[in-house]
Structures are given as C-alpha cells and as structure tokens.
Prior knowledge:
Blueprint (H helix, E strand, L loop, with lengths): L5 H4 L8 H12 L2 H7 L2 H4 L5 E3 L9 H6 L3 E4 L4 E4 L4 E2 L1 H9 L15 E2 L5 E3 L8 H5 L8 H27 L1 H19 L5 H29 L2 H29 L3 H16 L9 H6 L3 H15 L10 H9 L13 H26 L8 H10 L1 H14 L2 H17 L9 H29 L5 H24 L7 H16 L25 E4 L6 E5 L9
Antiparallel strand pairs: 1-6, 2-3, 4-5, 7-8
Helix pairs in contact: 2-10, 2-11, 3-10, 3-11, 3-12, 8-9, 8-10, 8-21, 9-10, 9-12, 10-11, 10-21, 11-17, 11-18, 11-20, 16-20, 16-21, 16-22, 18-20, 19-20, 19-22, 20-21
Amino acid sequence: xxxxxxxxxxxxxxxxxxxxxxxxxxxxxxxxPNGFTGLSMVFMGDTPAHRCLIPAALNITDEWRNAxxxxxxxxxxxxxxxxxxxxxxxDVVKNYSDRGLLPWVDVNVSNIPQEGCLDGWEYDTxxxxxxxxxxxxxxxxxxxxxxxxxxxxxxGVLTGSVISGQMSDRFGRKKVLFVTMGIQTVFTFIQVFSxxxxxxxxxxxxxxxxxxxxxxxxFVLGMEIFSPSIRDIYSTLGVCLFFSIGYxxxxxxAYFLRDWRMLLLVFTIPGIFCMLLWWFIxxxxxxxxxxxxxxxxxxxxxxxxxxxxxxxxDVIFPLNQTRENAGRLRTYSLCDLVKSSNVxxxxxxxxxxxxxxxxxxxxxxxxxxxxxxNIYLNCFLSAAVEVPALIMAWLMLRxxxxxLCLSSTLSLxxxxxxxxxxxxxxxxxxxxSLVMLxxxxxxxxxxxxxxxxxxxxxxxLRNTALGACSMASRVGSILAPYFIYLGGYYxxxxxxxxxxxxxxxxxxxxxxxxSLGSPLPETISHMQTVAGVNFIKEDDDEKYSLxxxxxxxxxxx
Length: 557
C-alpha cells in the first residue's frame, strides 16, 4: 500500500507554484470541448416549426394552397395552429381548385378528408437553416428518433464510463485523457459527413464514449497532482467552470452557425489544439507510485520542483514505502467496489445521488428550447447560471462538510422545481426563473459530487469508482430526454419527478462518510465508513462485515 502521507512527502513543492498553475490552466482548457459537445443536441436536434409540404408542381391556387393544411387546437396556448402531421387530400383539393371553387366560400374545407405528409415536410428556416430533425424528417411518426439520438449519445457516455475508469487505473490518467480526447475530436469531425441518421447516431455514440472518458481522467489527474488546498477550487472553479464556459460558447456559436454540419465542424477546432497539450501535462505521480513506478514519479516531482524554484529532497519516498508498494501491487476492478459491505454501501449511495443529479441537470439543460423566450438566450442563461453556482459550491467546500454541501444543494434544486406546478401558465417568466434556480442548485450539487466522490475512494480505486458513479449518472442522462417528453402529457410532470428524486437524494447523501480535512485515502483500508453503520474489520485483506443495521451513532462531520 501507499503511505497515507503522500501529500506530506510532496509538500516541498508548495501549493501554488508555476508547476501547479501551468497544469491547472492546461487541464481546465482541455475541458472546454466537453461543454459544447455534451449539449450540442439542444440546437442540432431541435425541431423547427413544420407542416406538410404542398408540392409546387401541384398547380393549385394560392387560396387552396393556404387551406390545404388543417387547423388543430394547441392545448398549451388554447389557440389554433396548422397541423404538423396531416393535410387535406391533395386529389380532392386539386379537383376543387381546377373547378374554380373557393375554400370556405364554396366548400366547407373541414369536411375534406385528411392524409399524412406524403410529400414530406416544409420547415421554418427563421431559426435554423438545418438541424438533424429537418434534414432526416425526424417528426410525426418518427419523432421518437430525436430523443433517441440524445439517449444514444449518453449510452456512449455510459459505455465510456465502464471502460475508461478501469483503463485509466491500469494504463494511466494521461494516456486515457489524450486517447479519448482524440476519439472525441476525430469522430466529431467524421459526423459532419454523416449520410444518414443511423450513421450519425453510431458516430455520436463513439463521441459520447470519448467525451466522458477524457473529462473524468482529466479531473482525477488534477485531483491527484494538486495539494488539498487546491483540489476544491480545481473541482469547482476549475474543470466545472471551464465546462460551463464551453457550454456558454455553444449558443454563441449556434447563433452564427445555423446549419448543424457547420456547427459540428467548428466544434472540432478546440479539440485539435487541446491534443497539443500532451507535451505539457504530466502523468499523475500518485498513480505512478501506486503502480510501483517510483523512479518515474520522482522524476516528475523533481522537474516540478525545478519549475517552482525549490529543492527536492534526495529521497522523496522512503525505501521501505516503495518496497511495500512493490510487494502488494495488484489489479483492482469494478468488483472491488462491492466486495466489502462498507465500500458497497458508499458506492450504492453515491450511484443513487449521481443518477438523480444527472437526470435533473441534463433534462433542464436539454429543455431550454421548450422554455418561453429566445432559444439562444435561454441556453446561454442556462449555462451562465452555472457560474455563480460553481462559485457558491467552491465557497461551501472550503468551510462546510461535504454531506451538508450535497444535501443542501440537492434539496434547493429539487424543492424549487416542485413549486413550478403552482405557477399559472401565463406567468412564464416566474416559471423560467424557478427553472433557472433549480438548475443553479443542481449545477452546484454536480460540481460538489466530483470532489466528494474522489475524496472517499483510495488511489487504487479512485478512477474506477468515478467511472462507476459516472455510469449511474449516464443512466440518468439516457432517461433525461424522455423526462422532458413527459411534459407533453402534463406540463409540470417532468419538474415534479426531477424535484422529488433530488430531494430524496439530498436526504440519502447525509449517510455518506465525511471527508472534509482528511487526506486522500490510498488503499481500501484507509476508507471511512458509512454514517450510522458499524463495520468490523475481519482480517488483513480489508474485508468488512455489517454488524448492525443503521443504529443511531454519533458521526463526525
């Protein structure tokens, strides 16, 4: 095992020298492409206003062309609108037009039989030149394909979570970070030339695999390089803030690039530049030490000391420590997250919390096109509200126990969403404000979850654990588009469900161990226990048994 005093062994570097500042800035910059890639479907997959196409070759009068689309009631606005999926039978309309009859004067148009959009659809180009919906007609009987596209992206994210965690723990944080960054960039570029919806979805799945893998690997790399005083700001005002910056760039780019292919093409440019960071971002010395590669770990730390203008000790890691590491090396996997009762309880609780936060965050982010107002402004505000949320999360993490931070932000986000059902339909701006406040709370909770999770697991399992939690999170992301579509049955239903599950998660998060002020654990034996549960260590193989059911015990905050 690795000494729990790793931070003490590397304290000679200081907290915030040129080395730390450089790595901090470069890792944060590498997060920007994830912000616009993950939520690009807000614009690429939006459904423009549409109605059945009336072919110009049909040669009917303008009066009959305007009357060919039946009116239907808009239940939300209590008004009439043109039907999106049906038209009056064109053979009948053509006959009336050729005979010189006028609609609603000589003919009761409502009595003309209807048919589907046999010639396709025409789309409003006032907001978009092209989306994947308008290009491949993902409307009416095929409208299920649009949310499925988003879900398939998050299926890729889920798959990446399964693979990348173990790959990163086995092959290193840096290698996985840049390999998956390359996958994300290359396949985003290939997506531009997608000839069909099916090919687009397949490529989008692979992009999702790369997106989450490089995000989690970059996050863990920073958490293991920086000292405890820098980890909180890195996890909130670092990676999460730069993700939000990428998110804010999305509506700005989409406003000027109304064609989805051009939008995707522009998204590949930052990824190309980020690939060049390979020569400037080091591997995690903590991970190298966990693999017994002490010489490489010390070489990185000595170079860091040189950058910071300090002298490294002759021996950074004691010989007895490195021998102990070499004698106890073994491979860890997802199975180790459930082998002991304590680790299993922590993992289950965290997976439930990650699932609920992800459902809420993704649903609220993807739903901006359905909110009242301008879609570009709505999306920008949805991204901008994350900035004060991240600042608040950082301030909370500096002083408050992790459990209290999680519980309060989850409860805030869930509670305000439950109030939306009480807002009259005409008070759109009040409902919009509550949605943004809910997004504020869930964004803060999401940024707190990463450091809270990383601090609970040991180095040998940290990336695997984050990958597992990310898997649970992505199950929520996969379901998020369908939470949105429940609003078609009852306007407030998505908010009721999202609010309820996040309030429940806020209560469950109180049971998690508290990591404030504790060093990062290096092995499973260093992990803390679930609040209110007694575990007895059985033997030196780090196995635990549950001896008491949720007894009332005093826990440390």
